[in-house]
Specification:
Helix content: 40-55%
CATH superfamily of the largest domain: SPOUT methyltransferase, trefoil knot domain
Order of helices and strands: HEHHEHEEHEHEHHHH
Number of domains: 2
CATH class of the largest domain: Alpha Beta
Strand order of the largest sheet: 4-6-3-5
Strand content: 5-15%
Shape: globular
């Protein structure tokens, strides 16, 4: 049903993370009601990090408040940012995606921290229950509506760099966290997961370029070498 909602809105690239019932799925194909292209071309990944590794901009669709500081946007605002990144078309400039959680439990904190911002769909505050396909359609339709509009102004960026993708950022996170562990920063191991998520979330909000990620990794390496002398 999520695939059907996607195709309604002109979206065709579905990525699945560790499907509960395996893949391909005859039940999914039947429920797609003709959205065969989306189902047939769906890509399967073992982890969420693998699924978003090549993306420059990621949103997490969730209605729950988290124990982390995150930018919150509406589906319309997210659609505008995605169109701006892509230059108004599916094959230009950067790549973006939206994370949706499992039908019953939604997204985990470790999934949400991979996102640049959270999408919250405005609904009746007295009854905010949406199923997965409804949420996909609500976000996808905003993307579809702005398709014919001029893209918002884009961030000026030197030609010799690009927006950092998630693989770049994950490499930075792991490099930083490894060195912080060695230096004793995570002296209370029980708090390491929460502290790591806070650091990752802070760096996500910075909107780093690939060159800036390389510069930061060089800074970490330089400080490490000085400490080891």
């Amino acid at each position: 049903m999520a695939a059907r909602a996607m195709l309604n809105c002109g979206l065709g690239e579905l990525r699945l993370v560790n499907p509960r019932d395996g893949w391909p799925s005859e039940d999914a194909a039947a429920a797609a009601s003709g959205a065969d292209k989306v189902i047939g071309e769906a890509r399967v990944f073992e982890t969420t990090a693998d699924a978003v590794a090549d993306l420059n901009l990621v949103f997490a669709a969730t209605a729950r408040h988290r124990d982390m500081t995150s930018r919150i946007v509406t589906p319309a605002a997210a659609a505008g940012e995605i169109r701006s990144l892509m230059g108004g078309g599916m094959d230009k400039n950067g790549k973006a995606g939206v994370l949706f959680g499992r039908e019953a439990k939604g997204l985990r904190n470790d999934d949400v921290v991979l996102a640049d911002a959270i999408i919250m769909i405005p609904v009746n505050p007295a009854f905010g229950s949406l199923n997965l396909a409804q949420a996909v359609f609500a976000v996808g339709h905003e993307w579809f509506k702005v398709g014919a509009e001029p893209p918002p102004s884009e961030l000026a960026m030197p030609k010799d760099t690009r927006p950092a993708d998630k693989a770049d950022l994950l490499g930075l996170f792991e490099h930083l966290e490894d060195e912080l562990q060695k230096s004793g920063f995570f002296h209370v191991q029980e708090k390491r997961a929460v502290m790591s998520r806070s650091l990752r979330n802070m760096l996500q909000r910075a909107g780093l370029t690939e060159q800036e990620v390389r510069t930061l990794r060089g800074v970490i390496t330089s400080l490490t070498l000085r400490r080891e002398k």
